[in-house]
Amino acid sequence: MPAEGAWAFDGHILLLKEFDIHKQPSKIEFTTTLLVKIYELLMSICNLKCAELMVNKIGIFVEADQTDILVPSKALKSKVDSDLKKPLRCGLMLKMNGTPSWFKMRSVKLSDFCYACGLLGHDYRYCQHHDAGVPESCLQYGPWVRASPMKKTPKSMKG
Ligand SMILES: [Zn+2]
């Protein structure tokens, strides 16, 4: 399963969606909810409103983990509905007080995605955009796109 709500099958994404009889088939959007971490936030933007604005630049904001939202040293964890036709995002460039700033992003619980084109659901070796002569180490994406799994806070020991 490449992301919440979607499955990878034989190099393709399988996503079940309720059919809207009032929409043309070409207008139906296929999104899946990704859990992303955004790193090195500025103290001036560590709030829910800014988190929502940032996440809406890469998809549709669903929710953010508010436990760490006021701690700039921790990554902002947020769920985002992401268009399956667009490649994964590894970061976000924003102008902060007129200065461009790069915010690194990583996705949690990703399994199958292409290191060549960044789309979910297939391996780069089967990608129509991949030149077989290009080694994996020279591709635009890699396993580093995956965030380390979130650690659960240990429960206090009873004693
Ligand atoms: Zn690909």
Descriptive account of the structure:
- InterPro entries: At4g02000-like.
- This protein is mainly beta.
- The protein has one domain (6-17, 31-126, 134-145).
- It contains 1 helix and 7 strands, in the order E-E-E-H-E-E-E-E.
- It has one helix at residues 48-55, and strands at 6-9, 12-15, 31-38, 60-64, 76-83, 91-96, 99-108.
- The protein has a 5-stranded antiparallel β-sheet with strand order 4-5-3-7-6, covered by helices on one side. Strands 1-2 form a two-stranded antiparallel sheet.
- The longest helix is centred in the first third of the chain and has 8 residues, at 48-55.
- The chain is globular and about 45 Å long.
- The chain starts with 5 loop residues before the first strand and ends in a 51-residue tail after the last strand.
- The protein binds zinc ion.
- Zinc ion binds at residues 114, 116-117, 119, 122, 124, 127, 129.
Distance between the termini: 40 Å
Q: What structural category arises from helix and sheet content?
A: mainly beta
Give the strand tally.
Answer: 7
* Total number of distinct structural domains: 1
The largest sheet, given as strand count, sense and whether it forms a barrel, is: 5 strands, antiparallel
C-alpha-based Rg, rounded: 18 Å
Number of H- or I-type helical stretches:
1
Q: Helical content, roughly?
A: under 10%
Organism: Carnegiea gigantea
InterPro entries: At4g02000-like
Protein name: CCHC-type domain-containing protein
